[in-house]
Amino acid sequence: MKPSGVEWLGEVPERWEVKRLKHVVYLKSGDGITAEEIEPEGKYPVYGGNGLRGYTNKYSHTGHYVLIGRQGALCGNIKYANDKFWASEHAVVATPCKPAATIWLGELLRIMELFLPVPPLPEQRSISAFLDRETAKLDTLISKVEAVILKLKEYRTALISAAVTGKIDVSTSLNAGVREAA
User: Fold this and answer.
1) Residue 140 lies in a domain
2) Buried residues in 69-101 as b, exposed as e (16+ CB within 10 A)
3) Residue 182: pLDDT band by 50, 70, 90 thresholds?
4) Cys-Cys link to 124, which of 14, 104, 105, 149 (CB 3.0-4.6 A)?
């Protein structure tokens, strides 16, 4: 480890560099697109300040990029775009000054300060792979919990429906509850 020279960062591994943001990534707003050019379906996704806005039949970028919301309710949020897409003027496209792992860069920008720790590209890729694996596990757990919640809501609806349509004899259940309370 070595001192980073940046108070909030503390020490970094000896082989890492510490650079100003402007030496790591070029930040530029996306290109203008009218609402009429954006459709619910199309060939290429259109990203704005709050994420996906719709689709269009043209693209402004190709590759894997970090997008930063520039306007809207989620201003400053970090999203990722891959392949061919249109970045609107409401999104900032982060283009690395030299090859960098996109997920590493995006997650670093979430906690951005003026100076950034910059590990060698293989370590960036390892960090990105770790983040991908771990967030995928969390996404899977979230999906499972959401599925259980949906099943419970369906069960609740079915139970209410059965009770109000007389398919369940609630008077027996009510009488049993009254006896238990007494």
Assistant:
1) no
2) bbeeeeeebbbebeeebbbbebbbbbebeeebb
3) low
4) 104
- What domain count does the chain have? 1
Structure token pair of residue 61 = 């970028």
For 46-69, the pLDDT digits (tens) are 999 889 999 999 999 999 999 999
pLDDT, tens digit, 9 for 90 and up, residues 15-56: 999 998 889 999 999 999 999 999 999 999 999 988 999 999
Q: Judge whether 175 lies within some domain.
A: no
Are the C-beta atoms of residues 67 and 48 closer than 8 Å to each other? no
Measured distance CA(54)–CA(86) in Å, rounded? 10
Q: How many CB atoms lie within 10 A of CB 127?
A: 16
Is residue 162 assigned to a domain? Answer: no
- The answer to whether 66 touches 106, Cβ cutoff 8 Å, is yes
Number of CB atoms found within 10 A of residue 47's CB: 25
61: domain range? 2-118
Q: What is the CATH number of the domain that holds 49?
A: 3.90.220.20
For position 148, what pLDDT does the model report? 96
Q: How many CB atoms lie within 10 A of CB 25?
A: 20
Q: Quick check: is 14 in a domain? A: yes
SS3 166: coil
Angle between helices 121-164 and 102-110 (to 10 degrees): 70
